[in-house]
TrEMBL record:
Keywords: 4Fe-4S, Iron, Iron-sulfur, Metal-binding, S-adenosyl-L-methionine. Pfam families: Radical_SAM. This is Radical SAM protein. CDD domains: Radical_SAM. Transmembrane segments: none annotated. The lineage of its organism: Bacteria, Bacillati, Bacillota, Bacilli, Bacillales. GO terms for molecular function: 4 iron, 4 sulfur cluster binding; catalytic activity; metal ion binding. It comes from the Bacteria. The keyword Transmembrane does not apply. Its cofactor is [4Fe-4S] cluster.
Length: 427
């Protein structure tokens, strides 16, 4: 398990003597063999600027930072894989904030790269290697030509071609889960927002938020183009927008119109679910799936990260319970971070939250954040750090009916919401 590091020019090496180390929260820890898997297809190595890698002398157990001029290296995992540890490093500039990515510990072992991770879902649908970029270009050309006045297709074409976003790419490939962003505003001030940051945050947002309010007809066009197969999913709530439920009136009108035309596929919303009344209206309009973003089931931790405006975690729970009561297949987009999510009190609170809300699916998503900034923001640990593998084992044992995954799924047979019969009026 040899240390992986980079020189000042970005060339990556494995250290001939030192073993690789990792971080759990703010602690440097040893990596365990059972935590390592071969670097998955679609993963990328990433430099950690303004850091020094930390390794271990296997003979003495001494932890040694590499000389200045070296850089720590991490791995960025594709969907379907949950990281278990962060890279082992120290910052050379404590004021510097790492770019908003989810860095995982990586080592050199048996002639190849290994990462501290566990496969939590089938990675094939979200493997970037399975997205034909030529086909995306062709789809963009076809749909923007077909709907030249639809601003959503213009916006999504930049997401698909510029950012190579897989969800927007799916929109132009007419497959799996596609995107229909609707909101430029938000009712939360997330510390790690990937589409909008305050000028003084020190972070650079990796995406640009949409800056217009789409019309109902634009939304309906995107939805109908995508909902053409039984397993197709169209999703409100993307990384390039704010909170979709702030545009509940648009969504409700669009969903009702679409469901008056077709019952094909699934309509999903990715939401913070804080606007309970808005969520209720969206559910009643014909929503099939709902994924709620959360970082914790503990109020002080949740509030520190999301900075909710006009709602609380109790509103989120209320929305989930109502949606589940109406037959919506509910899940959480669980933003996980080694050394925090696996704290004893966090695990206990999340197990009870899942039981109370009747969740069907936990989507394990690696939190993209500068570790030091995040750890300074949230409450300190109250109990033992259990480890990410132990946390996953507890979830599977305590929540046997809940799917542990990584992305939105089509509900199993028998668990899909019953759609209302379509009534068409003859002209």
């Amino acid at each position: 398990m040899h240390l992986v590091y980079a020189d000042g020019q970005g060339n990556v090496y494995d250290h001939p003597e030192l073993y690789g180390l990792a971080r759990s929260g703010d602690m440097i820890v040893e990596l365990l063999e059972e935590e390592l898997i071969p670097l998955p297809e679609g993963a990328m190595l990433s430099l950690l600027p303004n850091t020094r890698a930390v390794g271990m002398n296997p003979s003495t157990g001494e932890m040694l930072p590499l000389p200045e001029g070296s850089q720590a290296v991490g791995a960025l995992l594709p969907q379907g894989f949950t990281r278990l540890c962060l890279p082992g490093y120290i910052k050379t500039d404590k004021s510097y904030k790492l770019p908003l990515f989810g860095y995982s510990a990586v080592v050199w072992k048996d002639g190849g790269f290994y990462v501290a991770a566990e496969q939590s879902d089938d990675p094939q649908k979200w493997n970037p290697m399975n997205c034909d970029r030529d086909a995306v270009h062709s789809g963009v050309g076809s749909l923007t030509a077909k709907y030249p006045e639809n601003r959503l297709y213009g916006h999504l074409s930049n997401c698909a071609l510029g950012y190579e976003c897989l969800t927007s790419s799916n929109t132009f490939l007419n497959r799996w889960e596609g995107a229909v962003p609707v909101s430029y505003s938000c009712n939360a001030g997330c510390f790690g927002c990937i589409s909008e940051q305050p000028d003084d945050s020190g972070f650079v947002s990796p995406q640009t938020r949409m800056n217009f309010r789409p019309r109902v007809d634009e939304i309906v066009q995107v939805m109908l183009e995508h909902l053409k197969t039984p397993e197709s999913i169209i999703s409100f709530g993307q990384g390039c927008e704010g909170e979709p439920s702030t545009q509940a009136k648009l969504i409700i009108e669009a969903v009702r119109e679409v469901r008056s035309i077709t019952d094909m596929g699934y309509i999903n919303i990715n939401t913070n679910a804080g606007l309970s009344d808005h969520i209720r209206g969206i559910v009643d309009a014909g929503l099939d799936l709902m994924r709620v973003s959360t970082i914790s089931a503990l109020g002080d931790h949740y509030n520190a990260y999301y900075k909710p405006r006009g709602y609380t975690l109790a509103n989120v729970e209320k929305s989930l319970i109502y949606a589940a009561s109406q037959g919506v297949y509910t899940s959480i987009n669980y933003l996980v971070f080694p050394g925090v999510t696996d704290r004893e009190e966090e695990v206990e609170a999340m197990v009870e939250f899942v039981k109370r809300t009747g969740l069907k699916l936990i989507q394990m998503r690696n939190l993209n954040i500068d570790p030091e900034s995040y750890l300074e923001l949230i409450p300190p640990p109250q109990g033992e750090i259990l480890g990410m593998k132990t946390m996953l084992e507890i979830f599977r044992e305590e929540l046997p009916e809940v799917v542990i995954g990584s992305y939105t799924h089509v509900p199993p047979a028998g668990e899909a919401r019953q759609k209302k019969a379509i009534v068409r009026v003859s002209p």
